[in-house]
Amino acid sequence: MADAPILVTGAAGFIGFHVATRLLKSGKAVVGLDNLNAYYDPKLKDARLAELSKFPGFRFVKLDLADREGMATLFTKEKFAHVVHLAAQAGVRHSLVDPHAYIDSNIVGFTNILEGCRHNGCKHLLYASSSSVFGSNTKMPFSIHENVDHPLSLYGASKKANELMAHSYAHLFRLPTTGLRFFTVYGPWGRPDMAMWIFAKAIAAGEPIKLFNHGNMRRDFTYVDDVVESIERLVDRPPAGDPHYSSDAPDPGTSSAPWRVYNIGNNNPVELLDVVRILEETLGKKAIRELVPMQPGDVPATFANVDDLMREVDFKPATPIDVGIGRFIDWYRSYHRL
Question: Is the pLDDT at 1 greater than 60, yes or no?
Answer without folding.
Answer: no
